[in-house]
Prior knowledge:
heterodimer; A: FAD/NAD(P)-binding domain; eight-stranded mixed sheet; B: 4 helices
Amino acid sequence: MGHEPAEDSKVSSLESSGFATADRTGRNAVTEEGEKFDAIVVGAGPAGSAAAYVMAQSGMEVVLVERGDYPGAKNVWGGVLFREATASVFPEFWEDAPLERPVVDQRLWMLGEDSVVQAGFKTERFGKPPYNAFTALRGKLDSYFAKKAEDAGAYLLTETQVTELIFDRGKAVGVRTSRDDGDLYADVILMAEGVNCFAAVKSGLRADYRMENAALAVKEIISLPEQTINDRFNVPGDQGVTLLCIGEFGRGTMGSGFIYTNKDTLSVGFGAIVQHLSDTQVQPNDLLEEMKRHPAVQVLLNGGETKEYSAHLIPEMRFESLPRPYGAGYMLLGDTAGLVNFMFQEGANLAIMSGKFAGETAVEAKKRGDFSADSLSMYQRKLENSFVLKDLKSLRKMPGFFRSHRQFFGTYPRMLNRIAQEALTVDDQPKMSKGRDLLRVAREERGLSGLARDVLDGLRSLR
Amino acid sequence: MSDNPMPAKLEDKLFLLKITRDDHSHIEILSNDVCLRCEEKWCTKTCPAEVYHWEGDHIVVSYENCIECGACRMICPYNNISCVMPRGGFGVQYKFG
């Protein structure tokens, strides 16, 4: 570990040792002992690539380790990238990033058996620079972010799985990889493994996710001609729509479906808390299919062709049980740190901010030559001073509220549909007696005291 | 394989994916005795790729169908499933994600 070769020689020794050129078995991979970088980033998703980019730009020697054949090969999301956080690391990324459509129309659909009550917000402002959010697909997007990091000088190592961290006297000093003799060393290790944070868990950096603090989502990519999507969603080709669906098709789980418009595909998915799915003994694909069969959804998908099916876990941790995101020689980023605001369906923006803060912290730590836990605690403070932990803290009671009030995902959508159906049916019934019928529906579905309690509990959860 | 361009059945959906099969499983059932005593066989019900099947007296793990969501390790209430991610170069490769 004593020698300090220039970056080029490190990279070339990685390559000559077979790290970059090994066949897929990795059997030829040999690393010279003593290979040491300034930083190792584990996982080339939005968090990892943002961190690698920030560090490499400051002149640090960074290796970005990715399990997939290319960045994005293993990664799945619903599909929305928020502009502000992303641009804070990659300014004006929308000029050249592989995005699908800027989101101008956000709709909430409460599905009844064969009807839908709709809410939404649409503005042309979100369709112009600097935009608010974009739909995008990870296969292309993650490669774009990783390329930015590479262009800034980071070394990307694909097809390489990190299995655990290497410690020396209590400080993280390197990582063990799935390749033979594949140990890598660095002053600081940034763990951006995603929700399946096996190396972080194995190395005792955090407790694993459990069925009550993770959601399982499945998604399909369904292709349709661009013009068909424009017509069905009532937008021009350079504008997009997100549609969130709740209703009885979710069978009482705390779960929701979504349909996002990409350029010439739709991202159609459903996700629910793993525990709820398991308790209900259902397969998320069955609930997705149930949503797809709903008449209001079906007309949007008709004639489409399924291109891909995927499944992914989403962190839904309680604020109080978030892991400490740093320690001696390491930091936890993005999903590995539990940084998801699932009430607002935000994840990648928190991940990118965590990558930025962790990268900045590592740069400062290098200046001080101090990678102790104390030194890296700056990362925690940066998270606390930003919307990332401010939002998760201020909203900390909401997840528990919805978990214990699952009627919001099934009973209420059904009740609203029944009420709308009765109220909007024009017949010979006098309006006054119709009013009584609406009250009767509310009584049947939830009971008036139940309704009042839900409102009060909901308000309390915001305090 | 279904001719339906938008199949509902899981096996048809899985057929669309590129999955590079490793010669050994990244998923392991730790003790068959635990499965024999488990009445519900939770893993066979919620896995979104139907990797787990009960065949008479044991769970068959079709690890080559795994799409790496990681949910199985949470679903088994007895912590009887040891699941890691496939080695670099193996497993599912998403094009869209």
